[in-house]
Automatic annotation (TrEMBL):
Residues 95-231 form the Fatty acid hydroxylase domain. Its EC number is 1.-.-.-. Signal peptide: none annotated. Keywords: Membrane, Oxidoreductase, Transmembrane, Transmembrane helix. The chain crosses the membrane at residues 6-29, 50-74, 86-107. It is found in: Membrane. It comes from Thiohalorhabdus methylotrophus. This is Sterol desaturase family protein. It holds the Pfam family FA_hydroxylase. InterPro entries: Fatty_acid_hydroxylase (IPR006694), Sterol_Desaturase_Related (IPR050307).
Amino acid sequence: MTVSEMLLAYAPQIRLGFFLGILGVMAFWEAAMPRRPRSQPRWVRWLNNLGLVVLNTVLLRLLFPAAAVGTALYAETHGWGLFNQWALPAVPALILSVVILDLIVYLQHVMFHAVPALWRLHRVHHADLDFDTTTGLRFHPIEIVLSMLIKLAAVAALGAPAAGVLTFEVLLNATALFNHGNLRLPPGVDRILRWVVVTPDMHRVHHSVEGDETNSNFGFNLPWWDSLLGTYRDQPRAGHEGMPIGIHSVREPRAAVWLDGLLVGIPFRGGTPEYPINQRLKETTDGTA
């Protein structure tokens, strides 16, 4: 079996192994060093958030059986994409693939806040009433499918090597679990880590109910894009313990936590009153900001 065949065959097992291992570490870490008290029973939130993960995983396997790694191998075979034309050495191609794909995820995240129809879907992620490692896994199935289509197009256009794509997916999954963690890190450690990775305190600001705070700190993995592109906010106004989590229009646990609300209620009922970028622009135009 060639290296390419091995990557294609074992990529799901590699990702699942890292996912389960990191999820277990995060669950123990959150219990030992929580940053905020929980407002909802943990078992209810985890049951529904992880139920959504299972649904999304099955859907992706049915729609995209080869996934991003398979797309990378297909692009390599057919000479598609930038790196397959330049024939970069393996290590620089891998590193550049991880960095560029991370930038694309950042831009995609901004887009899901900037387009009202996409924000309806993305509200499922933001409506969680608590903020812990499972919040980083909580996305509507339609958003997951759209995100996969964007990723496949990016992988093909970039000509990213399969090893780089797998590395990126493992890192993104790991850092999403980490930076959504209900963790109390020493301030000095948090400051140092923010040079290389998005920390829980950095990303938690993005889950504030306040629109201007939600419209900041879009990074999931690398922290540089927010600073370079002007969307970085150091701390929330109310502090991490006092900052309300979620969105204004979904405060009832039955709507914000349970699976039927995540699939149907949040994305398809009501308008988009917490559409952060639009709200911020409206306030500025009206002279009320």
